[in-house]
Design brief:
Radius of gyration: 21 Å
Strand content: 5-15%
Low-confidence stretches: none
Strand order of the largest sheet: 2-8-7-6-5-3-4
Number of helices: 12
Order of helices and strands: EHHEHEHEHEHEEEHHEEHEHHEH
Bound molecules: pyridoxal-5'-phosphate
Helix content: 40-55%
Mean pLDDT: 96
Distance between the termini: 28 Å
Structural class: alpha/beta
Largest sheet: 7 strands, mixed
Shape: globular
Length: 374
């Protein structure tokens, strides 16, 4: 099997799965229980929080576990906006649905939302961000890495401008696709809230985290037993949390070599495309190596996906979340219909090999030969 869809989800790392299994079957206590099992569970929770915090370059007290990246973003945006009754929210047209749908709901509640448009390379400029700020801007939300094009957004420059122009406004970063791809430095970015997700880094599905800058007290979405320092009630999903901690430790150890390896895979893919499918186009500038968006104009992506699947090569058309709908990101970039309709997203993990790239290239050649003839 040649799995090249790691921006959709990743296989769980063996050591993370083993941790989850151990916590499910042996260390299964409730961290709130007062007996030995509970105390051990609380200890596991503490260690896992420290591991995730280290990966986020944050303090353990700034990390709150959630169920996924989507929940983290909901918690961040609703609590940040609703602490003020009205005001202006600044975001972009290329955000993940989690952000876009929250903003849509907040607009229904009376907040005014501005969506910045990317240029044809998929970039949002810090100048456009600065120009869109208003005196009543209360919140800005930007993704760190776009999930469809691998474009990096200028979060550092935007954070600086936001805090200078609107010191009371909060800054949320959706770092789901940047986690363990680029170093996360929320304090350098003047970030108040940052979303990450476990299943994109080798932890199971069902676990995410929200970074909350020290001193900030967001309002919860879930009320109950007061877990997660009152921010997210509900018995902690300890097997997932512990597996998340294990995955962070494992990925942290190999971060530098993983980046070099993935960059090599991207180069191999781009070289292969130039040589064997020179009419293929790469969408967006792809600032990070792990995501490559490419189009084979004239070859519908859903059909190419099926052909590739026949060779056990797995990629996405646009993003997995768009479920076959036309990509709002590529459309926002102003790409023509032939490119949007034939877009394929390849997303690497360090576990991929040159053989995976070769299988993809050869599958694409076969798909193109079949579809361009027809
Ligand atoms: N943000 C981005 C940029 C994503 O790519 C995704 C998932 O693909 C999410 C948020 C949502 O994360 P989750 O699947 O953990 O809810």
């Amino acid at each position: 099997m040649h799995y090249l869809d790691h921006s959709a989800t990743t296989p769980v790392l063996r050591e993370a799965a083993e941790t989850a299994c151990r916590v499910m079957t042996e260390d299964f206590g409730n961290p709130s229980s007062q007996h030995r099992l509970g105390i051990e569970a609380a200890h596991i929770l503490k260690g896992s929080r420290a591991a995730v915090a280290e990966a986020l370059h944050a303090q353990p007290g700034e990390v709150f576990f959630t169920s996924c990246g989507t929940e983290s973003t909901n918690l961040a945006l609703f609590s940040a906006a609703r602490r003020r009754r009205k005001g202006h929210i600044l975001t972009t047209e290329i955000e993940h649905a989690a952000t876009l749908q929250c903003c849509k709901k907040l607009a229904q509640e009376g907040f005014e939302v501005t969506y910045l448009k990317p240029d044809e390379t998929g970039h949002i400029s810090a100048e456009a961000f600065a120009a869109a700020l208003r005196d009543d801007t209360i919140l800005a939300s930007l993704m760190l890495v776009n999930n469809e094009t691998g474009v990096l957004l200028p979060v550092e420059a935007c954070g600086r401008t936001l805090k200078r122009r609107c010191p009371e406004a909060l800054f949320h970063i959706d770092a789901v696709q940047g986690f363990f791809r680029v170093p996360l430095t929320p304090s350098k970015w003047q970030c108040d809230l940052m979303s990450v997700s476990g299943h994109k880094i080798g932890a199971p599905k069902g676990i995410g985290a929200l970074y909350v800058k020290k001193g900030l007290r967001p309002a919860p979405l879930l009320y109950g037993g007061g877990q997660e320092n009152g921010l997210r009630s509900g018995t902690e999903a300890l097997p997932n949390i512990a597996a998340f901690g294990t995955a962070c430790r494992a990925r942290g150890k190999t971060f530098a070599e993983d980046a070099v390896r993935v960059a090599g895979l991207r180069e191999a893919l781009l070289d292969g495309l130039r040589e064997r499918l020179p009419w293929a186009v790469v969408n967006g500038s792809g600032d990070v190596p792990h995501v490559v968006s490419l189009s084979l104009p004239g070859c519908k992506s859903e059909v190419v996906l099926r052909v590739l699947e026949g060779y056990e090569v797995y990629v996405s058309a646009g993003s997995a979340c768009s479920k076959g709908r036309e990509s709002h990101v590529l459309q926002a970039m102003g790409l023509d219909k032939a490119r949007v309709d034939s877009a394929i997203r390849v997303s690497f993990a360090p576990s991929n090999t040159r053989e995976d790239v070769e299988a993809l290239l050869s599958g694409l050649e076969k798909a193109a030969a079949m579809l361009r003839r027809g």
